[in-house]
Amino acid sequence: MSRILVLVRHGQSEWNLLNLFTGWKDPDLTAQGVKEATAAGTRLKALGYKYDIAYTSVLTRAQHTLRLILDEVGQPGLETIKDQALNERDYGELTGLNKDDARAKWGEEQVHIWRRSFDVPPPGGESLKNTAERTLPYFNAEILPRVLKGENVLVAAHGNSLRSIIMDLEKLSGEEIVARELNTGEPIVYELNEDGSIKSKKVLSA
Ligand SMILES: O=C(O)[C@H](O)COP(=O)(O)O
After folding, report:
1. Which CATH superfamily includes the segment(s) 4-203?
2. Fewest CB atoms within 10 A around its CB: which of 28, 123, 152, 158?
């Protein structure tokens, strides 16, 4: 029984490239993002796992990343569940703004607080804590039980929706998780014990 859980942030998106706050907006991958997702699939393929189910958000960049990975691992038809619980954190009024312009307007420190504090939401948006309040009930009800019964599960999602899940899995504090940066298209492969604790973890870096 292998109990593999793979978490992967989408490849570079058009708005990542433009340095815009993205949140629930729906840009697709750039050519670079397509390469990153394909390379993530190649690295996963080398591990040799077969997956039982995949989960993704309702946003194009995560779904496209997942499709490219599934093609690479030779499971293009894998059952996939799309749910908005896995969407990126809603960036509220920052959505669509350039991150450097936002720093110029509100100051480096304030923008850093909005991006990386645990519980201070950007105006009209979600903090990481708010994000966890929707991702974790979904993860714990739908995804984790499948891994614990011995299935291999692939999740393609977003920087902050995955941070909230990693915080819970790795039992990190709010401070520890906001310091964790997730690279685009970089799979994190967990093997879990029967009780949900981590048996092993590998980050498949480029
Ligand atoms: O929504 C976004 O802009 C990014 O996907 C994540 O942004 P962050 O690194 O500012 O949290």
Report:
1. Phosphoglycerate mutase-like (3.40.50.1240)
2. 123
